[in-house]
């Protein structure tokens, strides 16, 4: 059982101080902000390292921070053997939102990443089957972005009613 | 660099094989659903078949997508999200409400009184029984056993009557509110529930005689759709589907919320009694015995519950949580339901993400259906117990 502070120490020892940043000033659970390029390596390390063993990805969510013009992905991890939790965040610029996939590490990420792509337009490099999951394949725009404008017609049908 | 596909994966079929006498055989792609009776809603499976054997299965979802998350952001009130939460898993609405209410209470640091907690636990355990009865009944129905379905629905109806007396609704309750309940339970709630517990217990045995130990039922479900433990954890499968693979994992015990740490109950796991560990029968029988455990919890809760306490005590007038975020998970009849809520100090949520258990459980389907017969696909889908309202949100 390790706290987020201890896990941050381990990660910055392994990947360098600048790779991950601890945010603990909020009222609720603290989180670690990770550089986009490193998420895959860090995820693999977290899953396989003895004493960490984050074998389950509880949730993967896309977030749109409109004020900062940024898109984010939040990973909620849990270890069924060590019983500790960890929240990782990746923040990317809105116009170039892509990061490596973690689908090969936790299969849960397969559909969750597709959902994040569908809803926010975040691209996951290396995902084997990255296409829309909830919306139709030829839908326009990313519905959960804060500035989303619904398309007027979809295949000749009026969308807004 | 990017690898976005605008279309589904191309299906490549093996070339036709000449079987002699001018006859040829070839793989075939067929659609199962979206209007297939065994898909429990609108799910489309794209099956590649070699004769009767499934060589590839691709689920296509989204037919029921109603933008729950976008709606929540536009609601301008945290309390108004609750009716939408009901409509995700529409056969286990109480559990969905409970998860949302607990997440919001943790975010806002509200404590509800004991009476509210006990009513919530009783309601959500009754809902678990109702939901499992539906799952068991329709699973039998899928496989061809029509009668158990009717027996299950008679019992489920009694639970819905209890809910109707308390909340006025039979399916979508809007009963558990942030910081309390919509209104107090009626005066005869305790006696009604105790009566139900008493009459329902023998019915579990009856159900076992009728369906669980039926030779044809066992033949159809044992050794079918085997889900190994490692695969289940890696895919994030939860709830009875995970416990069917022999994993001792129940959030009520392992990550307690509400007052579940006050009750004695067992975590039911599959044992591979009829065949391989983690087959359809194991997933099914976990649900049957879990109803018994829920009865135990309800009995203890009825004993401990006090008649003192106002159910509106902690309900806030205007909900304006402090800035921050929370991920909170609860055990619904289908597994781990998580809410990821971000608050920016305004009256409407900045982001609400629901980690729906059915969504994750369904994603394991392609992995466990390879090599199954077409008719087994029906059993496998039924045994995972998905609700499409929750898959598509």
Describe the overall structure.
- The complex is a heterodimer of chains A (161) and B (393).
- Chain A has 161 residues and is of the alpha/beta class.
- Chain A has 3 helices and 9 strands, in the order H-E-E-H-E-E-E-E-H-E-E-E.
- Chain A has a single domain (4-134), classed as Beta Polymerase, domain 2.
- Helices cover 22% and strands 29% of the residues of chain A.
- In chain A, the strands form 3 sheets. Chain A has a 5-stranded mixed sheet with strand order 1-2-5-4-3, with helices on one face. A two-stranded parallel sheet of chain A has the order 6-7. A two-stranded antiparallel sheet of chain A has the order 8-9.
- The mean pLDDT of chain A is 83.
- By secondary structure, chain B is α+β, with helices and mostly antiparallel strands.
- Chain B has a domain at 68-225 and 256-354: Cytochrome-c3 Hydrogenase, chain B, CATH 1.10.645.10.
- Chain B has helices at residues 68-74, 82-86, 93-108, 114-143, 147-167, 189-212, 215-221, 229-235, 240-243, 251-254, 280-304, 357-362, 365-368, 374-384, 388-392; strands spanning 17-20, 23-25, 28-32, 44-50, 53-60, 176-177, 180-181, 324-332, 335-343, 351-355.
- In chain B, the strands form 4 sheets. In chain B, strands 3-4-5 form a 3-stranded antiparallel sheet. In chain B, strands 8-9-10 form a 3-stranded antiparallel sheet. A two-stranded antiparallel ribbon of chain B has the order 1-2.
- At the A-B interface, strand 3 and helix 3 of A face helix 1, helix 8, strand 8, strand 9 and strand 10 of B.
**Strand sequence of the main sheet of chain A, in spatial order?**
1-2-5-4-3
Q: Structural class, from helix and strand content of chain A?
A: alpha/beta
Q: What structural class is derived from the secondary structure elements of chain B? A: alpha+beta
CATH architecture of the domain at 68-225 and 256-354 in chain B: Orthogonal Bundle
What is the helix fraction of residues of chain B, given as a range? 40-55%
CATH topology of chain A: Beta Polymerase, domain 2
Largest sheet of chain A: 5 strands, mixed
Annotation field: number of helices of chain A = 3
Report the largest inter-chain contact.
Answer: A-B, 42 and 46 residues
Secondary-structure element pattern of chain B, one letter each: EEEEEHHHHHEEHHHHHHEEEHHHH
Q: β content of chain B, as a range?
A: 5-15%
Tell me the CATH superfamily of the domain at 68-225 and 256-354 in chain B: Cytochrome-c3 Hydrogenase, chain B
Distance between the termini of chain B: 31 Å
Described by the principal axes of the CA atoms, the overall outline of chain B is: globular
Shape of chain A: elongated
The multimeric state of the shown protein is heterodimer
CATH topology of the domain at 68-225 and 256-354 in chain B: Cytochrome-c3 Hydrogenase, chain B
Q: How many structural domains can be distinguished in the coordinates of chain A? A: 1
The spatial strand order of the largest sheet of chain B comes to 3-4-5
């Amino acid at each position: 059982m390790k706290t987020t502070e201890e896990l941050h120490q381990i990660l910055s020892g392994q990947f360098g101080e600048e790779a991950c940043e601890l945010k603990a000033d909020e009222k609720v659970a603290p989180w670690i902000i990770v550089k986009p390029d490193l998420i895959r390596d860090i995820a693999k390390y977290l899953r396989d390292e003895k004493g960490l063993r984050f074998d389950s990805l509880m949730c993967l969510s896309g977030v749109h921070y409109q004020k900062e013009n940024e898109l984010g992905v939040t990973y909620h991890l849990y270890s069924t053997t060590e019983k500790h939790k960890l929240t990782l965040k990746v923040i990317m610029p809105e116009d170039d939102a892509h990061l490596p996939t973690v689908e090969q590490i936790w299969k849960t990420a397969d559909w969750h990443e597709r959902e994040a792509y569908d809803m926010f337009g975040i691209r996951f490099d290396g995902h084997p089957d990255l296409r829309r999951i909830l919306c139709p394949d030829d839908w326009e725009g990313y519905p959960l972005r804060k500035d989303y404008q619904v398309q007027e017609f979809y295949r000749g049908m009026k969308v807004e009613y | 660099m990017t690898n976005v596909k605008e279309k589904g994966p191309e299906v490549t079929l093996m070339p036709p094989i000449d079987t002699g006498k001018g006859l040829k055989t070839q793989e075939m792609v067929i659609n199962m659903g979206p209007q297939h009776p065994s898909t429990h809603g609108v799910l489309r499976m794209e099956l590649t078949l070699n004769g009767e054997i499934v060589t590839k299965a691709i689920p296509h979802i989204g037919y029921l997508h109603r933008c729950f998350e976008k709606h929540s952001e536009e609601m301008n009130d945290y309390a108004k999200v609750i009716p939408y939460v009901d409509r995700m898993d529409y056969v286990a609405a109480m559990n969905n409400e409970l998860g949302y209410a607990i997440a919001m209470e943790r975010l806002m640091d509200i404590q509800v009184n004991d009476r509210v907690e006990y009513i919530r636990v009783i309601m959500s355990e009754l809902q678990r029984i109702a939901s499992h009865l539906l799952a068991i009944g329709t699973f039998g129905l899928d496989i061809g056993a029509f009668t158990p379905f009717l027996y299950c629905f008679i019992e489920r109806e009694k639970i819905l009557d209890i809910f109707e007396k308390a909340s006025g609704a039979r399916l979508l309750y809007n009963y558990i509110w942030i910081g309390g309940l919509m209104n107090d339970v009626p005066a005869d709630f305790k006696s009604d529930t105790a009566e139900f517990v008493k009459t329902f217990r023998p019915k579990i045995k009856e159900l076992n005689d009728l369906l669980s130990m039926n030779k044809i039922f066992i033949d159809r479900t044992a050794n079918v759709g085997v889900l190994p433990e490692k695969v289940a954890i890696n895919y994030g499968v939860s709830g009875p589907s995970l416990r069917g693979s022999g994993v001792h994992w129940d959030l009520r015990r392992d990550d307690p919320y509400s007052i579940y740490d006050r009750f004695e109950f067992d975590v039911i796991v599959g044992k591979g009694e009829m065949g391989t560990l983690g087959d359809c029968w194991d997933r099914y029988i976990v649900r049957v015995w879990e109803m018994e455990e829920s009865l135990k919890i309800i009995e203890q809760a009825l004993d401990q519950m006090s008649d003192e306490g106002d159910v509106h005590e902690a309900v806030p007038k205007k909900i304006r949580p402090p800035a921050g975020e929370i991920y909170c998970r609860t055990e619904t009849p289908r597994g781990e339901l998580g809410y990821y809520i971000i608050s920016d100090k305004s009256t409407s949520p900045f982001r609400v993400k629901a980690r729906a258990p059915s969504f994750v459980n369904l994603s394991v389907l392609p992995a466990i259906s390879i090599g199954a017969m077409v008719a087994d696909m029906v059993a496998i889908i039924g045994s995972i117990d998905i609700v499409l309202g929750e898959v598509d949100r």
